[in-house]
Specification:
Protein name: DUF2304 domain-containing protein
Keywords: Membrane, Transmembrane, Transmembrane helix
Radius of gyration: 20 Å
Number of strands: 0
Largest sheet: none
InterPro entries: DUF2304
Helix content: over 70%
Strand content: under 5%
Oligomer: single chain
Number of domains: 2
Number of helices: 4
Structural class: mainly alpha
Length: 106
């Protein structure tokens, strides 16, 4: 294993542990816990066996596994950012409505 793989495995183990802690503290449901465990396990497989995703690399004309991981990571981050934006706007609207009702009915 090269240095980046070792660092990635340490990261996967660290995040697996943190997912477990959040589940134990009841901050994650069982479904969320399983979802995150699958994400971390999938990342571990790609890190340990980078050739396991060669069929995806060939299909999209990507030369290195690391490039695929970076591309997927960026796409996921954009998705999460959009979802957070939508949730924030919804929360702001609800807070505005609540403040408006309280101000009028005080």
């Amino acid at each position: 294993m090269i240095g980046i793989q070792i660092a990635a495995i340490i990261f996967v183990l660290w995040m697996t542990y943190f997912s477990y802690l959040h589940f134990r503290r009841k901050e994650f449901s069982f479904t969320e816990f399983i979802f995150w465990q699958m994400i971390w396990a999938g990342l571990a497989v790609v890190v340990i066996f980078p050739k396991s995703v060669d069929f995806i690399l060939k299909k999209f004309s990507i030369t290195r596994t690391f490039d695929l991981v970076v591309i997927v990571g960026i796409v996921i981050l954009f998705g999460i950012t959009f979802r957070n934006y939508v949730l924030l706007r919804r929360t702001e609207r609800r807070l505005e409505e609540l403040v408006r009702k309280e101000a009028l009915h005080g």
